């Protein structure tokens, strides 16, 4: 009888974990799409009702988002999507520029032909996916993830994952801007060429330029979308 009881509990526990993962992925996607904007309240009862699950996996999902730095607890408001100020946005992109520039330099030394072929294939898919913002976003994530893994540095991978998670708060992808999507493909190709040639310094410089272009597009998006992130005084670009 006892063994039967244990067998009955395990599936329920597994279902709970799956629901928690589903709730986390759903809320993460809503933050990324901008459906849940900075400052939006995350109410367990509302989310549980909307996703047709219990409050327990929703609570777990909110805790995970808080651990990721995407959610904060505000007095009298409870859990809310974090709002980044201008300085934090700049710091986030500065950190991303450093990490991904370093990844490109290390990849020039460590990347295999298979990894380079994968980067080229992903970038070609991006070229063909222009106009499909959701597809472009997913492919761009794949490209940068593959590049970072090609650097062969586990500590860099962890740091980059943390920065990428924080970027979700900013909502819309810069690749929704048509000219940015086109430029990103060209910039990716330049990074790949430098890596394939084993030119570490050139790969890092090219990746840094790519990140800085993305940062400029992000700042323009924030200023034109009514975002709570202000432009610094005197910045007219």
Automatic annotation (TrEMBL):
Residues forming coiled coils: 109-139
Keyword entries, A-Z: Coiled coil, DNA-binding, Transcription, Transcription regulation
Top-rank taxon, per record: Bacteria
InterPro entries assigned: AsnC-type_HTH_dom, GntR_C, TF_FadR/GntR_C, Tscrpt_reg_HTH_GntR, WH-like_DNA-bd_sf, WH_DNA-bd_sf
Listed SUPFAM superfamilies: GntR ligand-binding domain-like (SSF48008), Winged helix' DNA-binding domain (SSF46785)
SMART domains given in the database record: FCD, HTH_GNTR
CDD domains in UniProt: WHTH_GntR
Domain HTH gntR-type: 17-84
Gene3D superfamilies (alphabetical): GntR ligand-binding domain-like (1.20.120.530), Winged helix-like DNA-binding domain superfamily/Winged helix DNA-binding domain (1.10.10.10)
PANTHER family for the chain: TRANSCRIPTIONAL REGULATOR, GNTR FAMILY (PTHR43537), TRANSCRIPTIONAL REGULATORY PROTEIN (PTHR43537:SF49)
Protein name, as recorded: GntR family transcriptional regulator
Organism: Tropicimonas omnivorans
Organism classification: Bacteria, Pseudomonadati, Pseudomonadota, Alphaproteobacteria, Rhodobacterales
